[in-house]
Amino acid sequence: MNQRPQAKLKAALDLAFNDYHHEKQSRLDPISLVYPFANPKDREVIAFFVALISYGNVATILKSGEKLLLPLGKNPLDYLKSNEKLDLWRGFKHRFTTGDDIEILAHWVRGALKAQGSLEGFFVHSNPNPLAPMKVKLSQFVRGLTVQPLPSHLKPFLKLRSRNLKYLLSDPEQGSACKRLNMFLRWVVRPNDGVDLGLWKQISTSELMLPLDTHIVQTLKKLKWIRTENTNWKTVETVTHKLREISKSDPIRYDFALCHLSMSGGSFKHYQNLSTPTES
After folding, report:
1. pTM
2. If DSSP states are collapsed to H, E and C, what string results for 6-53?
3. Is the pLDDT of residue 70 over 70?
4. Among 114, 107, 109, which residue's Cα sits nearest to residue 85?
5. Which has the closest alpha carbon to 55: 251, 212, 208, 188?
6. SS3 letters for 171-203?
7. Could you tell me the pLDDT band of residue 246, with boundaries at 50, 70 and 90?
8. Every domain of the chain and the residues it spans
């Protein structure tokens, strides 16, 4: 990327960031469901559940998220690490995701928490090579979660719901863009800045990959970084590499702003025009 166009693009991105990356805007985002929990360890597990069901209409995600979280009470980490029953979501449904899916996921999370104390601990333990690319780290994390033991009554559902569970907890080694897992990592790794949470300390922001959703994709197409709306992990690597040329230490700092700019009906071209000096 040439230096002058790169500088102009960074200036436009920074303008959008200043307008949209703030706490007021975050109240319109699924991450807002995490904020009421004060304990960082509670926030971590809540963020994981909320991120994984963050597909579809935002209003629906928020309603489903509230229903999902309610049975876990005020101390979800303690509940998940206990031996209390996890048949808490009978009748729950969020588009393709059912209560059985959430119960299976909760048992996987319970196993991870009991093994390593936190999801961050489990993520790091799943990846003995700290220099491995994020594709490998995410895949090992997913595979490690999905081999956690399940009670016998859920084992038939594991096969029955296999396709839906793979959608809920996708694996980049199978080509998935892993939008929701990458978003979860953004939430917990990026600093506590009024939007993101700054919970994890053992993963660098420089490692994060862009969560690709329909809103971001439209902007990337207009920038001519991608040509199609059919995204996969290769697309994630391509666009994140371009963002690293602009912000090496924190390549996805612009994700939230660009997403909410698009959701609000705004145009990134507006910021490009503002960042381009007019000729005298």
Report:
1. 0.95
2. HHHHHHHHHHHHHHHCCHHHHCCCHHHHCCCCCCHHHHHHHHHHHHHC
3. yes
4. 107
5. 212
6. CHHHCCCCHHHHHHHHHHHCCCCCCCCCCCCCC
7. very high
8. 1-21+210-280, 30-202
Distances (CA, A) of 226 to 107, 163, 240: 38, 28, 12
Task: Give the pLDDT confidence of 137-159 residue by residue, as tens digits.
Answer: 999 999 999 999 999 999 999 99
Q: Which residues pair with 98 in a beta bridge?
A: 93
Q: Please identify which residue in the block is written with the tokens 């200036």.
A: 11
Residue in the structure block whose two tokens are 């594991």: 158
As to burial, measured by CB atoms within 10 angstroms (0-12 exposed, 13-18 middle, 19+ buried), residue 277 is exposed
Q: Tokens for 186?
A: 């953004």
- Residue 230: CB atoms within 10 A of its CB come to 9
Q: Which tokens hold the place of 175?
A: 């080509």
Query: Comparing C-alpha atoms, which of 202, 185, 177 is closest to residue 252?
Result: 185
The size of the chain, in residues, is: 280
- The answer to whether the beta carbons of residues 72 and 34 sit under 8 Å apart is no
Give me the helix-helix angle, 179-189 and 255-263, nearest 10°.
120
CA distance 45 to 43: 6
Q: What is the mean pLDDT of residues 31-42?
A: 97
* Contacting residues for 20 by C-beta, under 8 A, at least 6 apart: 256, 257, 258, 260, 261, 264
Specify the 3-state DSSP secondary structure of 98: strand
Residues 175-225: tens digit of each pLDDT: 999 999 999 999 999 999 999 999 999 999 999 999 998 889 988 988 899
Q: Is 154 exposed, middle or buried (0-12, 13-18, 19+ CB in 10 A)?
A: middle
In the structure encoding, which two tokens stand for residue 221, read together? Answer: 């197409």
Report the distance separating Cα 36 and Cα 19, nearest Å: 24
